[in-house]
């Protein structure tokens, strides 16, 4: 639907490298609607909840250390097939596999410093779960996207 919501987060590596605007800009330019955004140092407890599915993986501790090491920018974007559109724009998790033209394919080299996180499009509950972990309902705002009539048939 036009109103599908997806969770995206600029990671500390990209924040430090001044890529927040670049990430936001690409998603805006595509026509997606920004309905939630903040900047914060993620509390460790929330990072553990966010990456709970990786708890048993060997890289889990490093992952939680890294995501709590500096500012992140959690966001919620809305639009037609938003989850798949965003995944395609971000590219494969491993930057080596990410196509040029994708965010990771243009700005990242290393799997553990891959610029952005996006909810897994193959996990149906991922968006709702991750949005609920990072945002209260009243932090997601309701407004008319003025160019919607030119973006949608
Ligand atoms: P993200 O944030 O989309 O989800 C989990 C993160 O773990 C992933 O991006 C990578 O940055 C990081 N990571 C580090 N090592 C590995 C690994 O060996 N496999 C996977 N899947 N992710 C890894």
What would you note in describing this structure?
By secondary structure, the chain is an alpha+beta fold. It contains eight helices and four strands, in the order E-H-H-E-H-H-E-H-H-E-H-H. The protein has helices at residues 12-16, 20-30, 44-50, 60-67, 82-90, 103-107, 126-134, 148-151; strands at 4-10, 33-37, 73-79, 116-118. Strands 2-3-1-4 form a four-stranded antiparallel sheet, with helices on both faces. It is globular, with a radius of gyration of 15 Å. Cyclic guanosine monophosphate binds at residues 54, 59, 63, 93, 111-112, 114, 117.
Short structural description:
This protein is 38% helix and 14% strand. It has 8 helices and 4 strands, in the order E-H-H-E-H-H-E-H-H-E-H-H.
Q: What structural category characterises the helix and strand content?
A: alpha+beta
The largest pleated sheet is described as: 4 strands, antiparallel
Q: Compute the gyration radius: what is it? A: 15 Å
Total DSSP E strands:
4
Low-confidence stretches: none
In round numbers, the mean pLDDT is: 96
Proportion in β-strands: 5-15%
Give me the side-by-side strand order of the main sheet. Answer: 2-3-1-4
What fraction, in percent, of the residue positions are helical?
25-40%
Task: List the helices and strands in order.
Answer: EHHEHHEHHEHH
Bound molecules: cyclic guanosine monophosphate
Shape: globular
End-to-end C-alpha gap: 12 Å
**Total number of helices:** 8
